[in-house]
TrEMBL record, chain B:
It comes from Wenjunlia vitaminophila (Streptomyces vitaminophilus). Residues 44-68 have a biased composition (Low complexity). This is FHA domain-containing protein. The keyword Phosphoprotein applies. Keywords: Phosphoprotein. InterPro entries: Cell_Proc_Reg/RNA_Proc (IPR050923), FHA_dom (IPR000253), SMAD_FHA_dom_sf (IPR008984). Residues 39-79 are annotated as: Disordered. Pfam families: FHA. SMART domains: FHA. Residues 98-148 form the FHA domain. It comes from the Bacteria. Signal peptide: none annotated.
Length: 472, 171
């Protein structure tokens, strides 16, 4: 009998999946159009007038993005673009749905859809720009320290710009003419580039030079420098801009990337301890942070009579958002039939998830969260497949920044953690956020294109004949 | 709009949303890449339409083995490497011949200077017993302490030493 059970193991590249992507994209455009029709029928009893235009617009955007991916990143991951398109489309529908609310219009939260549509187009333009201009993600590695400086400037900028009356606590906006931008959003990508470039060089020193103590690897004092610096910076953001979200995102991203680069659990333990200590320290004297914590612990106390309310509780947003989730139940009230507009201020931006929770229910909410999870998973998969350490770290950094942001916003809206003013990626109203997230997806696509591109075939050798199985 | 239509639309939308998630997961499932493991016998058979001609030839011993296994409850089902660089490797016994040696087409490729390229083979005989046969190796195949000279049935759990590698059959 011959040795028939021997096996060969050959490397197998990922196939080019552009046609799969096209099919998924068509699906991803149809779902929001369906949602749009659903909202129109529920509110007016007729199909909304702009439905055809909306569908065509979203479809055109998706098609442009797809064609550019086909040309400039042919081996990229097939899931990222459809999921981003679906989330962006759903976000547009939800904002349009909240635009129909007379209550919000009376509060001065007027029309947001056309603005958001414009920002989405701009986001796609950035997406195309990144794919066309960024030939290779490793070029970004050259700008490690420049990106550090740029990120610091972007993060610090809002603290120095004059605040406006309606900045609502956190100072994270810059006002230029009629526009307000959130530089912290852009900093998210740039800081990931810096961390990736920095940790790629320093990972060995951080991972190996350490003493073992009680099962944890304690880094040397001088290696603690960078993490202390980043921590101090995130505390400064918390103090001067009073924005818990950006601070948490920034520091969390650093700890995650440090852990990925060095494989040392001790960094996570240190990171958690340091951020807890820092947050507790700042909360002890910063009134805005205290307000947020009170609103987190006692959201329903806002309905008590004026004199029994805990100090600093000024808004019923948290309570209304919890009511939204509650009245949504498992299957939701149906699109256009909920009352999440009662949240009032920021219903279209920070609290957009409450509308999802009320009108699509737990089932829809889980689907949306799964979409985010799939997007992050594809980013992590890209990191695993990437062949260069910088690409690996960058992909991990970008997808964990995305994941952290989803967690911080969703956790805040559901009252799991104190609420912070951040936008749900793709879903929420906000120009800076849409542009940043489309660029982020573009960089991920570029890395995954490099990672999945089949290696060039080796030159044929003279003895390339496969070994014959010997019959015994 | 009637209540019924809206309810249908609401549930329909949730279904469509979940359908998208499921389709995306299916795409991910079909998107696995990395290395492909090809069974040589099946690859050669790929040119033929029907299952390979060898498959039937392989079938009887397997059935025999199974029926024999039913008769004798102590029939081994796997071969385990207990010492050497391949420690922990398990090969399921399915009636096929297992070759051991440094040759890279062996079932178990030994990275061991003391093993010959075609060192030994293990195969079931007609009664379903597993037999080990030394293929004229330089350093010999040992069962317990004794060097094998003829094909010998392997009892369960008895160590067989080839160079630095020790294997045994287990249930």
């Amino acid at each position: 009998m011959s040795s028939s059970n021997t096996t060969t193991i050959t490397p197998q590249g990922a196939p080019n999946r552009r046609n799969t992507e096209l099919v998924l994209l068509a699906f991803a455009v149809l779902v929001p159009v369906f949602a749009y029709a659903n909202v129109g029928l529920a509110i007016d009893g007729s199909l909304p007038a702009g439905m055809l235009g909306y569908g065509l617009g979203l479809g055109a955007m998706a098609l442009v993005a797809h064609l550019v991916v086909r040309k400039f990143a042919p081996y990229a991951d097939p899931i990222l673009l459809p999921i981003a398109t679906l989330l962006n489309g759903l976000g547009l529908v939800l904002i349009w749905r909240l635009d129909q609310s007379k209550y919000l219009a009376r509060l001065g939260q007027g029309e947001g859809t056309s603005n958001q549509l414009m920002w989405s187009c701009l986001g796609i333009a950035f997406f195309v720009g990144v794919l066309v201009l960024l030939k290779d993600h490793r070029i970004l590695q050259r700008y490690t320290y420049i990106s550090m400086v740029v990120a610091l400037i972007l993060l610090a900028a809002p603290a120095f710009f004059p605040a406006r009356a309606q900045s609502f606590g956190a100072k994270i906006w810059i006002y230029i003419g009629p526009f307000s931008i959130q530089p912290g959003e852009f900093a998210k990508i740039i800081i990931a580039i810096f961390f990736a470039g920095y940790l790629m060089v320093k990972r060995d020193a951080l991972a190996l030079a350490s003493r073992r103590f009680m099962g944890l690897y304690l880094p040397r004092g001088r290696d603690l420098g960078p993490i202390l610096a980043v921590w101090a910076l995130s505390i400064l953001i918390l103090v001067f801009e009073t924005d818990l979200g950006t601070s948490l995102l920034f520091f969390g991203l650093f700890v995650v990337m440090l852990y990925v680069a060095t494989e040392r659990t001790s960094w996570i333990v240190f990171g958690l301890l340091m951020s807890a200590a820092g947050a507790a320290f700042v909360a002890s004297f910063e009134p805005h942070v205290q307000q947020r914590i009170t609103a987190w612990l006692h959201p329903m106390d806002i309905f008590l009579p004026e004199d029994q309310r805990p100090a600093g509780l000024i808004s019923d947003q948290s309570a209304q958002s919890l009511f939204s989730f509650g009245s949504g139940g498992v299957l939701g009230s149906g699109l256009g039939q909920g009352h999440s507009e009662l949240i009032g201020f920021a219903a279209k931006s920070d609290f957009i998830l409450a509308t999802v929770g009320e009108e699509l229910g737990l089932a829809g909410m889980m689907a949306v969260l799964l979409l985010y999870a799939l997007l992050v998973q594809r980013g992590m998969r890209t990191a695993l497949a990437a062949r260069d350490p910088f690409g690996k770290l960058l992909a991990v950094g970008l997808s964990s920044a995305f994941a952290l942001q989803v967690f911080i916003v969703a956790g805040g809206v559901m009252n799991l953690i104190p609420l912070t003013g951040m936008t749900m990626p793709f879903l929420a109203q906000g120009g800076s956020s849409v542009i940043t997230n489309w660029s982020l997806v573009a960089i991920l696509l570029k890395i995954s294109d490099t990672a999945r591109r089949p290696a060039p075939a080796p030159a044929p050798t003279t003895d390339a004949e496969p070994t014959q199985v010997v019959r015994l | 709009m009637s209540e019924l239509t809206l309810t249908v639309m609401r549930l329909g939308f949730l279904a469509v949303l979940w359908l998208f998630v499921i389709v995306a997961v299916q795409v991910i499932r079909s998107d696995l890449f990395g290395t492909r493991v090809t069974q040589r016998s099946t690859r050669r058979a790929a040119t033929q339409d029907r299952p390979p001609a060898r498959q039937p030839a392989q079938q009887p011993p397997r059935q025999q083995n199974r029926s024999a296994g039913r008769q004798r409850r102590g029939a081994p089902t796997k071969l385990v490497v207990t010492e050497g660089s391949l420690t922990g490797t398990v090969v399921t016994l399915q009636g096929q011949t297992i070759t051991l040696g440094r040759a890279h087409d062996s079932t178990i490729v030994l990275d061991d200077d003391y093993a010959s390229s075609r060192h030994a083979r293990i195969y079931p005989d007609r009664d379903g017993r597993w037999i080990v046969e030394d293929l004229g190796s330089t350093n010999g195949t040992f069962m317990d302490r004794s060097r094998l000279t003829t094909p010998t049935p392997i009892p369960l759990g008895v160590p067989i030493r080839i160079g630095k590698t020790v294997i045994e059959l287990r249930k």
